Amino acid sequence: MQVLQQTAKVIQMSAKRKKVTTTEQFIYEQIEPFGLRVSPSKETDLTKLEAEDFSYLRELALQHKVLVLRGFDTLKNDDLVNLSTLFGEVLEWIFGSVLDIKIHANPENKLFTSEKIPFHWDGKFAASAPHFQFFQCIKASPIGNGGETVFCDTSKVLAKMTKKHIQRLNKISIEYRTNKLASYEGDIEQK
Question: Are 101 and 111 in contact (CB under 8 A)?
């Protein structure tokens, strides 16, 4: 557990800018501890990019784990879903393909409040875990007021663990249960 806690602290550090590469289409900036920021060199409308551009972005996402697309025009929900299909099958939930998270006056779920959401993974109650996830920030909170999304590179966590840690984790059984409040429901038992 100590390795997980140390890794979580590293991951929560602010992203630092590293290497910058510019092409005809995009500007790429390596971010730490992992990920890649992609900005447009010229075209800011993602719906006007070619399928091969998305194929390349898909490969970058697989390589860097997280792509932050910044400086592009806001997508309508239908466009977001259509572009997502270029990365793979889009999961349908009870709310559809896109969950619009806004603060509600009387929310039934923490997701729709201004409260901090604990570290979690999305899709844990889906029939199959999503391979890619897309987040689009329409309006950001003022700096210092929260709203950040924290990602964890599990492969780096596992690489830092000793065989003894991994053997201990393999013996743990975890059961998740939740009431259906929003987009998820069900039980999971892992052994």
Answer: yes
pLDDT of residue 189: 54
What's the rounded Cα separation, in Å, for the pair 149 and 12?
A: 10
pTM comes to: 0.74
According to DSSP, the residues that pair with 32 across neighbouring strands are 16
* Bond prior to 33 in cis (omega within 30° of 0): yes
The residue behind tokens 């557990």 is 1
Judged against a pLDDT cut of 70, whether residue 52 lies above it is answered with yes
Dmax over CA atoms of the chain, in Å, equals: 52
Burial 70-101 (b: 16+ CB within 10 A, else e): eebeebeeeebbebbeebeebeeeeeebbeee
- Specify the pairing of strand 36-40 against strand 67-69: parallel
Place of tokens 């995009």: 26
Residues 126, 186 contacting (CB under 8 angstroms)? no
For residue 29, count other CB atoms closer than 10 A to its CB. Answer: 18
